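[[Per-residue structure]]
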Amino acid sequence: MKKLLTLIAILGGTAFVQAQTIEDSSRSTAGYIKSDGTIEDRSHSTVGYIKSDGTIEDRSHSTVGYIKSDGTIENRSHSTVGYVKSDGTVENRSHSTIGYVKSDGTVEDRSHSTIGRASGVKKEWAAVVFFFFKL
């Protein structure tokens, strides 16, 4: 009985790891970000991870960067590659605007053209996927 309850708890717990769909500018599915930070391509193959501490990993779990609490995006050597401002503005290392993540999940390039959508995803995660991870 204990084994059965444990199995039900494990299977039930995995059902709560939902994925948010990442769409391209045509509203076609480009990939997914699960609530646990797993990044998948449109075929559900894992391409990376964003850990709860802000560490960004590739599919092999090698660290490729970091999301700092202030919105700074760093590479594996802790060199700054960009910033995600509180208003959703995404900047490169020189503080030039490269895009925007809107509150409704719309992702725009620097000319305000829609390049995709990431509804229900943290703006830092969406910025990493669209501007730095290039899903």
Confidence is low (pLDDT under 50) at residues 1-17.
